[in-house]
Amino acid sequence: MTVQPIKVLMAWSGGKDSAMALWKLRQDPAFEVVALLTTGNAEMQRISMHGVRLGLARQQAESIGLPLLEMLVTDATYSGYEVKMGEMLTTAIETYRIQGVAFGDIFLADLRQYREEQLARLNLKAFFPLWGQDTLQLAETFLASGFETILCCVNDGHLGAEFVGQRLSTSLLESFPPAVDPCGENGEYHTFCYAGPIFRKAVDFAVGEKVYKPLDAAYVTADSKTRGFWYVDLV
């Protein structure tokens, strides 16, 4: 008897980890990725945290050959996010018959537990194709496999403004301070992936201006390393 593959959404940030996770899933006959799911800000029309324009995420999805489900929020609270996400996933269950959602997380156990608990409410499973892998090896495999990505956001508590807007490369990895995770798994940096084995053609974009956004004072303490984030506008 033929076993049907598990239908999943790929949680899509547009960065290297979600791209790498999607690539691995597509090589695994146990899974069928039916759509990408991204979250963004309704007013700004940008992907959450990464700050990338949603139009570029749509170009990524078109090149990958999968539909892009866009969950746009105006309520920044967790309750508002969770309600909206529940609605989006319920629709995906009805439309695509999904059985779970895949994520590019690597070792943040608290985040994994949160995702699993939220999905369990809808009888969905969470899958983590990159979980527990060595992040330096992952970054090196990512580059060796032909992926191309650019740093679109950096945390000023870990990296300077000179890093944002640079293409990820072996030499750039070697220039990171020792405390920075090679994959930026602790939020040190975020990326926009524009070419590689999951894409039918490279995403066309231009590098715009750098913008600094300080954290709200309520989130900054005397011993906080992070004071804000540097973004580069990709157009």
How many domains? Answer: 2
User: What's the rounded overall pLDDT mean?
Assistant: 95
What gap, in angstroms, lies between the N and C termini?
Answer: 49 Å
- What is the CA-atom radius of gyration, in angstroms? 17 Å
| CATH topology group of the largest domain | Rossmann fold
Biggest β-sheet, characterized? 6 strands, mixed
Q: Spans of 5+ residues with little confidence (pLDDT < 50)?
A: none
**H-E order:** EHEEHEHEHEHEHEEE
Strand content: 25-35%
State the helicity in percent bands: 25-40%
Query: Given the helix and strand composition, which structural class is it?
Result: alpha/beta
List the total number of helices: 6
Assign the CATH superfamily of the largest domain.
Answer: HUPs
- Compute the number of strand runs: 10
Shape type:
globular
Broad CATH class of the largest domain: Alpha Beta
Q: Based on the structure given, which CATH architecture of the largest domain is correct?
A: 3-Layer(aba) Sandwich
Keywords:
235 residues, Rossmann fold, putative n-type atp pyrophosphatase, domain 2, 2 domains, four-stranded antiparallel sheet, 10 strands
